[in-house]
Structures are given as structure tokens and as C-alpha cells.
Model the fold of this input.
Amino acid sequence: MSALETIRKRAKLLVGIIFLALLVFVLEDALSSGRFFFGGGDNTVAIINGKKIDYTKFHVEADNAIEKEKASMGVESLRDSDVTVAVQTTFKTMVMQMILGPEYQKLGINVPDSELSDLMIGSHPAPDVYRLFMDGKGRIIKQFQDPRTGGLNMAMVLRYVKQMNAQDQARWEMIEEKVKNEDLQSKYFYLLMNGIFIPDAIAKQDNDDESKTYNISYVLKRYTDVPDNSVTVSDEDIKDYYTKHIYQYSQQEESRRVDYVTFAVNPTDSDMQSIKRDVDTMYSQFKHLKDNEDSGFIIATDAQMFDYKYHKAEDLPSSIDSVITNSKPGTIYGPYKEDSKYKIAKLLDVADLPDSVKYSQIFIPAPNGDFDKVKPFADSIKDAATVDNFADLAKTNSKDPETAEKGGEVGWVTRGVELASNPDLEHQMFFGKVGNTIQLKLQQGFLILIVTDQTPRIKSYKVGIAMKNIEPSTTTQQKVYAEVSAFEGNNHTSDAFEKAAGQMNRRVVDIGENETTLAGIESPKELVRWAYDKKEGDVSDAINTGDNKYIVAHILQVTKMGTIPLEQVKAEVKQKVAEAKKAEKIMADMKSAGASLAAVAQKVGSTPATAQGLTFSSDEIPSLGKEDAVIGTMSALNTGAVSQPIQGELGVYVIKVDSTYYANKSDYRLTQMREERDMRNKAPNEAYNALEKKAGFVSHLGRYY
Done:
């Protein structure tokens, strides 16, 4: 009985341990994603037309997109930058569907399956389909190039689609979804763009305004020339101005003003000595490796990958090209510094290789996976095959419907492009001579390949590069982190931080809720999340921003979406009120001076000046900047007329139109065509922004990702 009781007690303990482990797992996931601790208690990622996109729903969609991206790239994990792109694309697509979807429905816009099929595999496919079959230089891969037109060979594309593996299928589905969404958008925006029209009367007026040119004289009394103590600005004045101009003090989303200090973690002299010792050891080991040991050794260094490709001289890095092209296999160059690393390059092999090869194929299926039964036949085909008889053998024996009727011809492939993911096959294809045959075992049967042609051979180089990162040691990182923690601990209040930061490299930055980049901060994600989870005056713990840097941040100001409180813009409003009061004084002086510019200039202690070649379309006045009130007044004055005082941006003006003339006046219909084109180009973006605003779109994505 006591043994049974012991088992029961231990079972309870085990259940408790498992529960705690699960709790830690859940909390860890929540902390990493931010779903419980950021963006409020309702886990809202965005709001559109009053509807919320819940984090859980979006997280599923984003995870699916990430999994598809991994499958399309054939990798088990993505770089942070690739994850960010996948998440941002998923979010943008979801938002656009919610905003534009109702518009499509109202107008009856859709993409039938037949139309989508035509966009993917029709005679004129979508641009994204073209890009799928292009190399890194924007050229169609030779295997998929139509030899007659130089365009995309759709028969080869269709064959590719029929034989897609899981990785290719994932990539194809992503492109298909993108093409469908873009087709819906293009239909909708095409309707908008073709509804734009500029009436003749407006085009004629605009054409006249653009070509009528003014030469003016003016007197300017700057606000800065009037002493600040000559005007009195009361709190009531500030409040009154703010109320009348409240439309100027609003923003579409929340923002945070943050100041921070940076702690750089740089390698110490001791770290550099240790790194150099490691590099010297690495050099010695690299130098004495056997041929079959180089790849494993390089992968074990900070290079983390091995380049199996043979490169032409012009494709080698400029830091080593002259050395490599004048050396023998086995030569080691380095160590040398590049990209914050010590590198050691070793010439592993030199070979004369064609840049491209042309090949044909015969497919021998293995029904029900019975490879043993068909292998003797496949072997006999391979042994008998030559360049001269391969076409006949393919027409008679190949079961590939796309190439059999063409004598098995597939086309050209370029070294380091189409077959880069299969180094062994690429080696056989490019090291062999014309007539070289290769047998491959596929899931469905055997594939017999033969090289039928190749470009001239050129000297190519296989180079292995071992690397050692130039970075601070763990000891140095811990020491700096301790300094950061001590700074934060001693200055965790707003006043203490500002006092201490004022003596350091303090910087101020305005942060939007969905910022993905901030000047001087490599990875701002953690800072953005922190800023939108805390309140004004809070001081952060140490934040790792990447690139061996820590920051400690302080929230100076929180500005909510909508009207900005007067207290946050009081200094700016006070300046505007002071300028307005100065303008009243200056305008009164100018009006009392008389009707001539000379008299006005003498009264306000200024000197007349001129501005030449102005039009109603002028954005700026030379040496004065943007002065819309002056330009507007100018266009309404007759030649020789003197204006009333004009309250401008820099000060108060009085102007006189000295002369006018028409410069390069053209047919108004050209202006009409240009304006319609410009408006149509702007229409999609401006229309979508208007729909976003109408929908009350608010994004909280930055709090989660």
C-alpha cells in the first residue's frame, strides 16, 4: 500500500512539473510574440470599418505565409528579414482585401478561374510568372526560353507546372495568389483612372498660369527683425489661435518621442589579440587540410557555408581576384579584413568550363515503383545513346510528352543558375564533354540526360573562404551590459535620466507605432514594442538593437491619434501668435507709409529687392522659399500695381508687378493631356489612401511583429 501511495505522490509531482513546463512554454511564446503584453487586452492587430483583426487570426495567416515561404525556398528556417517581409505582405494583403473587397463586390469585379489560368499559363502570362523563370540578371533562363522569339516558352512552363515538387508548388501558389489580387486591383483602379477628365476651361486657365511670367519688386520686413519683447502673448491668445487652427494640430496615428543613450560593445585590444590568435590557428589548419576536408572546415568557421561553384575571373570578389587568377591550386591568401571579418581564401581548383550547356533527355517510367524491372532497359538506353542517335531514341522510348516529340531536347542551362541546388549533377553536366550521358533516378522512374552542345570553355576558379568574425568577446559583452544595467539602475526616473543623458551621446527620435526602420538603430523592433507598452516618463532596461549596441531609452512624450493636446504644441503655437502680432505691427507701419515701395522700405527700415521669372505655379521664390500668399497676390495684380501688406512665412511683404510676359506658351490640349496623365498616375494611391481613411484604418502590427 505504501508503494502505491508513493507512486501516486510522485505522479502528482510529475503532473505539476509538466504543467509548469507548459506554462513556461506558453509564456515564452507570448513574450516573444507580444500578444498578451502589447496592444491592449483585446489583442487587436488592426481596425478596419470598426472590425478588428484579432492577433490569433492574423498569427495563423502569418504562420501559413512563413511556412509557404520556407517551402518555396526549400529551407527549414528564414532569416529575420524574410520573416518580416512575409508578415508585412500577409498584413498588407489582408488589409487591402478588407478595404477593397466591398468595392469589388459593389462593382461586380472578380477574376474567374479561366482568367486566372490564362494569367498563369496562357500565351501572355503575368509579369510575376516571367520573373519566376528569370536568372539573377533579369534574363529568361535558357531552358525556358523560346528559341524563336526569345520570350518565355509556355510549353516548358506547362511542363514545369505538371512536374512541380512541394517546394515549387508552394512558390507557384504564392505567385498565383499575388497575381489574382493584383488583377482585382488593376481592374478597380483602371475604372477610377478612366473616369478622370480635365475640362477645357480648366486646362486653358492652367496653361495660362504656367506660362504667364512675372518680374516683381518687393519690400520684406522679417519677423526676426522685430524684438520679441515688443509683443505680448497671453495664454488666452495661445488658446484662441489653437482653437481657430485646430485642424493643423492633428495626426493619423499615435506617436512616441523617445530619447536614448547608446552603449557600443566594441572589441577590446585583448579581444583583438585573441581573435588574431584564432585566425593564425585557422590559417595553419586550413593550409594543411586534405582536399576532401576543406568544405567541412569552412562550414565550421564563421562562414557557415561552402561555395561549391566555379567562378569566372570577373565574378570573383575584387579583394582576391588578382591573387586567385595568378595562383596555383592550394594557394592560400590572407588573412585580410572584409565586412567585419577576417577572411582566408584558398584556391581549391581551376578548370576550363563552359558557361552554358545544352542537353536533351529521355524519361523511362517505373510503374508501381518497380525500378529493378526497368533499370536494365534504362541502362541499355544510356549505353547506346550518342549525340547522333539520341533524338530517335527519345522519340521512340521517352515517356515525357513535352520533349519526346522534339527528340528529347530541353534546351540550355547556365552554370551556377538552374542546377545550383544540385552540385553533383551540375558537376557532371559541365565537366563532361559533348556526348556525355548521365542517368538519374527520380521518384517516378529514370531520366537519361545527354549534353548535346556547350559554349566555349573558359578558365574558372573554385575558391573556399574561411572566416572569423571580428566581434567583442563574451567577457567584453558582459562588462558593457553591466555598465548599461548600472546606468539604468541609477537613472530609472525621468529626471535622473535626463540629467545623466545630457552628458552623454543622447539622441531624440519620433517613433510611429509601425516603424520598421530608425536612423542609427539596426533593429528597432524591441524599442518600438517597449515604447508602445509603457507610459510617458518611463525608462527602459537595456535594449539590444543589434550591431553590438545597447540603448537605454526614455519616453519624453506620448501623442495620441487625433487632435494633439495644446500642451504638446504650446511652444509652436506661441511662436505663431507672436509672428501674427508682429505682423499686425509691421502691416500698420507699412500702410501708413504711402503707396510707393521706396516709402514703405524707408518706413520699416528695409531695402527693396527683386524676383524674376515667377509664375503662378512657382513652388518657391529664390532666396525666400515657399511664400504662397505672395505668389497668389502677385497673380491677381495688374502691371505697375502695388499690393497691400501681405502676411507671409518669413515676414510681411509689399510687392509690385514690374512686368509680365508669356514664356513657352503651348497648346492648352498638351496641358490637358499632361494633367490627366498625372492625375491618373496618382489616382490608385490617393484613392486607396482615401478608402483607408474612410474605413478608419488603424494598425497595431508594430506591437506584435
Remarks:
- The chain is about 45% helix and 20% strand.
- The mean pLDDT is 88.
- The CA atoms of residues 44 and 54 lie 5 Å apart.
- The first strand starts at residue 44 and ends at 48.
